[in-house]
């Protein structure tokens, strides 16, 4: 690897950590706002407030043609699922500590791996199956609060959000064959704004004037996170960047402690550690398998 490529990878990793920080900041704002507004309303503002920033980004790149889509039906399906899973994200963050919610969210790569077997016909060996099973044990540990029930409104909402998100990721793997990053971000935000906006009508609460900075911050942090994560993938491969997504637990826990004095119980940290380690091992095995496939292709060309 050349010095220049090393610098690019380092730059990509820094950009990824910055992106995760902004997404964690956005989640903190979501949790705060969910105490004052309905889940549909918060999800609606997440989409609506990010749209102007994304449109400015598209305008600066003169990328309007990139919004043309060949798979409108898939965008609509993804949009509907995104509305459901994001509302569940809001409920989960409202009901649980940030660290507890994140521990459950981190199980998404495990479910994506399982769904890939059935929907993308990907082969999963004994090592990856083992990491999936171990990760699910970690989820069970993180779900168990000790004195209370395992399945509460918050934990069920987080689990449903993981299912919805994982299905969307599988769809994105297909959509990236023809769709641009601009179109996928744009249509996601439009779907979130329109879908959650219509649902929010049933439980609309007047906006307090003093809350507007937080609502604007919701869009700003979400847009910045999306921008930095997109730039990160320009400089570094997914196999290097994906593990950095777990830094969200650090950012989220620190900010939650600073604002609400949240201190997650021990089982959350234990479960999160198991989930993260199994996820990292799963990524390692997938990266190794991908390299093997590429090597075999090169040998036969």
Short description:
The protein contains twelve helices and no strands. It is mainly α and 301 residues long.
N-to-C order of helices and strands: HHHHHHHHHHHH
Given as residue ranges, the uncertain stretches (5+ residues, pLDDT < 50) are none
Oligomer: single chain
Number of strands: 0
Number of domain units: 1
Largest sheet: none
Number of helices: 12
State the end-to-end distance.
24 Å
Architecture overview:
The mean pLDDT is 85. The protein has one domain (3-299). It is built from 12 helices and no strands. The longest helix is centred in the last third of the chain and has 34 residues, at 266-299. It is globular, with a radius of gyration of 19 Å. It has helices at residues 3-33, 39-60, 72-95, 98-105, 108-119, 126-143, 153-175, 181-200, 212-235, 238-241, 248-260, 266-299. It is an all-alpha fold. Helix 1 (3-33) packs antiparallel against helix 9 (212-235), helix 5 crosses helix 6 and helix 6 packs antiparallel against helix 12. Helices cover 77% and strands 0% of the residues.
SSE layout and pairing:
Elements: H1 3-33, H2 39-60, H3 72-95, H4 98-105, H5 108-119, H6 126-143, H7 153-175, H8 181-200, H9 212-235, H10 238-241, H11 248-260, H12 266-299
Helix pairs in contact: 1-3, 1-9, 1-11, 2-3, 2-8, 2-9, 3-7, 3-8, 4-11, 4-12, 5-6, 5-7, 6-12
């Amino acid at each position: 690897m050349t010095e220049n490529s090393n610098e690019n990878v380092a730059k990509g990793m820094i950009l990824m950590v910055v992106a995760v920080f902004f997404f964690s900041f956005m989640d903190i704002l979501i949790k705060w706002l969910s105490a004052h507004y309905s889940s549909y309303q918060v999800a609606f503002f997440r989409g609506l407030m990010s749209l102007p920033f994304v449109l400015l980004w598209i305008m600066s790149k003169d990328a309007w043609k990139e919004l043309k889509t060949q798979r409108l039906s898939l965008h609509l399906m993804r949009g509907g699922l995104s509305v459901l899973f994001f509302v569940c994200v809001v409920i989960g963050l409202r009901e649980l500590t940030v660290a507890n919610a994140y521990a459950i969210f981190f199980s998404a790569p495990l479910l994506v791996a399982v769904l890939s077997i059935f929907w993308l016909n990907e082969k999963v060996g004994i090592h990856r199956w083992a990491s999936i099973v171990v990760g699910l044990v970690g989820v069970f540990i993180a779900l168990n609060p000790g004195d209370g029930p395992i399945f509460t409104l918050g934990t069920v909402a987080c689990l449903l959000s993981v299912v919805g998100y994982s299905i969307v990721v599988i769809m994105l793997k297909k959509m990236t064959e023809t769709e641009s990053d601009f179109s996928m971000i744009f249509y996601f935000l439009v779907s979130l704004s329109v879908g959650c906006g219509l649902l929010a009508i049933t439980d609309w609460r007047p906006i307090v004037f003093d809350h507007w900075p937080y609502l604007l911050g919701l869009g700003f942090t979400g847009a910045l996170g999306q921008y930095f994560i997109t730039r990160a993938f320009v400089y570094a491969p997914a196999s290097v960047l994906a593990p950095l997504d777990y830094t969200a637990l650090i950012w989220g826990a620190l900010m939650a402690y600073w604002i609400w004095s949240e201190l997650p119980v021990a089982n959350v940290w234990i479960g999160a550690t198991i989930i993260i380690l199994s996820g990292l091992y799963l990524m390692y095995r997938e990266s190794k398998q991908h390299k093997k496939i590429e090597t075999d292709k090169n040998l036969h060309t």
